[in-house]
Design goal:
eight-stranded mixed β-sheet; six-stranded mixed β-sheet; 39% helix
Length: 620
Amino acid sequence: MDCTKLYYILDNITSKEDKYVRKMCDSLGIYFPDVEFVDQMYEKSFFEICSIILAQENSKRAGTVAFISGTLVGPLFPIDDAINAFLHSSSSVMADYVVDEENYIDISKAHFLITKPEAILESKMDPQQVHFMLKDKNYKFLSRSDLYDVYNIVESGTYPFLNIEAFSLDDYIKHTMGDGLNKLMEYISESAYYDVDCIWEAILKRYNINDIKTALHLNYILNDNIKKKNNHKCAVFAHLYYEDLFDVYLNRLKEVPDDIDIYLSTTEERIQTLSKKASRLNVNVKKIVVAGERGRDAGALLVAFRKYIGEYEYICFLHDKKTSGGLEDVRVGEAFCSLIWDTLLGSKETINQIIGLLEEKPRLGFLSPMMPIVGGYINGLLGFQWTICYEETCKLAKRLGLELKIDEKKSCFALSTTFWCKTESLRPIFEYEWKFEDFPAEPLELDGTINHAIERALIYIAQSQGFYSATVVNDEYAQLYLNNMQFILDSVFASLHNSFYFPTVKFPLDVDEMISDWISLKCFCQNCEKLYLYGAGTWAQIIYEKMEKINKRIDGVVVSSIGSFTTFNNLNVEEYETIKTYLKSENIGIIVAMSHKFSREVEKILQRDEQKYYVINTED
């Protein structure tokens, strides 16, 4: 069989120089030594592009041709036997696909295709014409809904590729606990057949770091199993401003192991005091430098410490904190500061575990404490991390000459300008020749300054250098976070349930849309003489009680079949078919209140009969 050409369909992100692209070509090269890269045609699907190219190939009576989408990485396990079986079969096409309700094979959603000479592609094909990719496997096409099951279909040997679109799902929690991608990455690493770094390259180039963090649960809880294995040149840099707190933070710095250098900064008038206290407390400080009157912690990091940072492989940066950005009393700021220092510098064991994490994970470049879940930070930052800083962050990126994957709709999860990092991950901002004059004069605005842009930009700068960022927490704070987040979620949903919210399983959670749905329902009710419910089950009861809260009376209840439903809240239940003419003639509005799979059928009936109706969104 003459296997001649592989067409690699690139999009505006994928490059033929990408490691994962070269890996795919090398794996399939034994069958398809001739590779041609094709740019994504405007508004053309993968299948449409394949069809266009195949028509051209057939006109030349070419040999077997393969097509692959730039969203696939792999193969994650050997597929030589599968390809050989297809080449010696009577089938004309090998693909990933879905079998539709009529038992035809739908190739229009394929990401991988191999076609024999003179094959004609149709979106729907007879099963006899299409070869199963892996014989004797319960194979199913990797459609969007199957992206939630990526681990099982690879681990079982059912599907040899990973569609990296799985890293951008915003509704994974609707279907699973979301552990599939994490398990898959570990499985690939342990199997050693495929280089997992190729996947990191692909997703860091393509997706917002917040999506990647969410998909892979990049929240590390420190534990005794994380060990530092090698010696690295490390340093801790700390900016200390509040003289009355010098003793507190110097005592914390005593936890730093002896093989890690310590640098301190403070204002010129405080240097002597800080130096004397550090000496009295036996803190092994390598150097104390002057921080200017501008810039605060960011100025200390990028100006005062600049010439020293490049000497180290890993660095930690911290600063003191007394207030809470004007949000609350001083205790909230103290709580935030304790979180930062306990997480990043809590003990010698904590520090060695963090260094162990950085050395264990080559692509991990930046570790930040988790966002504070306390006081005014909850209302002021939770879900609103950009505050008024998005435009300023974009300006910062332009200043550094970087194209950062920032998105105002995606959370910037690292706040505080405190972290551990691989120096290489933040090289662009460290090497920029900052001056104290680049920062605003005191008093500093509470938000929206270049300082606030810098703290938000760091995770995106790391991504631009090929590193991912994560949050880190010790087990004590992990317990607190779990408890506090559960309390917040319970409070928010209790408020929603007591107002306009319908308890659907709809993700991503869109409160604006919920409010809009509720307003639309109220408008519908106002335009009807009477209101009937279609349904007499749980959903109908929920809607009935919601209607009572807004003083809207339900006048009747209809169902498709009476069955066991005879009365509902002292209302007689009637079959729709027996009173449908009455319902239409009396300007009666019908509220369809049942699960999604049943409401779709009912909606077809009401459309047919030209009834006035409103379907409650009860997405399954």
